[in-house]
Amino acid sequence: MCGLLSRFSSRVVVTALASFFSVALFSIPEPAVAHEAYVVQQGDTVTRIARRAGVSWRSVVDANGLVAPYVIRIGASITIPGAGSRGGSSQASTGIARAGSSYRVLSGDTLTRIGRRSGVPWRSIAAANGITGPNYMITIGRSLAIPEAGALGGGGGAGPTGSASSAGSIVVAAGDTLERIGRRSGLAWRSIAELNAIKGPSYLVRIGQVLRLDGAQSIGSGPAASGSSPAPRNATLPAASKAAIEQSLEKWSERYGLPTDLVRGLAWVESGWQAQVVSSAGAKGVMQLMPGTARWLSETIVRAPIDRANYDDNIRGGTAYLRWLLDQTGQDERLALASYYQGLGAVRRHGLYAESEIYVAKVQGARRRSG
């Protein structure tokens, strides 16, 4: 009997030791950024905090003088030692959220909580990562860019309740386009493009690019908001008389089977019937044609050279483009006008942006005044 008990006790000890080392082996945290201090959040344990920081849980215990059962209080500030026995890592893929780094979403995370821990407004984090309302959902395992505090503006707030506000500048995140940035910030994307010298036809932005927002026009505050003529943005092209422009507008409207007042209204909103205007994005003339658009029209629709600097060619190109957009949208003037401003592909994918609705209303208003 004693021998049996001895063998049984030995098995228990061996099994316990094996279980301990198994747990120890499988709980080794993956490398991540270590930080000096951390505010305990709901659901945190010493082990979870250590795993995210890339240090051993024992080093956290020792650094903070914790004793078994190692209870930590929500809101308490605890010290996260250096890299510890694991050596740490400079990669922030799974570390504690910190401004100017990246962070991998964990179970229980929300933008509000991540913002609170990192000291960066949750709206700024949403804007930097192309996360939009109304729910502002994030998925476990997703890597988020945590911008520098204040880089994107926006208030902290109690939680996601609206779109990100804009101020100063914004860092382009994965999935961002000028249109999306404009919608989130409440600014006209074309104005953002002009401000940052981003040219068409693609208007590409790259991840990590810092875009200026200060000075960009709010949605709906662009030229031709009233009946007055928009001021020339950069008068470098030859001017043309009002009579010559009106004659050209009427000629090409008839040529492409469009109501003259519709083309006149579009031209007024685009340039105020000024042949000499050139935007900083490179759009030229009465119809504000971009180089790529003019080239495509010349090769595909008009099948003749289009000189954007020539007011008559410019009007012909813009009128032909509107004719094509109407054909593509089933003769829907609202969709065609929005596509002239927003792009046909974007209209088909996303519907009309708020600023596009305003643009259409401006054209229709100018159309009535010019009729």
Observed structural traits:
elongated; 14 helices; Lysozyme; Membrane-bound Lytic Murein Transglycosylase D, Chain A; mainly alpha; two-stranded antiparallel sheet; two-stranded antiparallel ribbon; 6 strands
Summarize the structure in short:
With 371 residues, the chain is mainly alpha-helical. Helix content is 43%, strand content 5%.
Provide a descriptive summary of the structure in words.
The longest helix has 25 residues, at 2-26. Helix 4 crosses helix 5, helix 12 crosses helix 13 and helix 12 (333-342) crosses helix 14. With 371 residues, this protein is mainly alpha-helical. The protein folds into three domains: 30-90, Roll (Membrane-bound Lytic Murein Transglycosylase D, Chain A), CATH 3.10.350.10; 101-212, Membrane-bound Lytic Murein Transglycosylase D, Chain A (Roll), CATH 3.10.350; 242-370, Lysozyme (Orthogonal Bundle). It has helices at residues 2-26, 46-53, 57-64, 111-118, 122-128, 178-185, 189-195, 242-255, 260-271, 291-301, 311-328, 333-342, 344-350, 354-370, and strands at residues 37-39, 77-79, 101-104, 143-146, 169-171, 210-212. 43% of the residues lie in helices and 5% in strands. The model is unreliable at 4-35, 83-94, 150-167 and 220-234 (pLDDT under 50). The chain is built from 14 helices and six strands. The strands form three sheets. It has a two-stranded antiparallel ribbon with strand order 1-2. A two-stranded antiparallel sheet has the order 3-4.
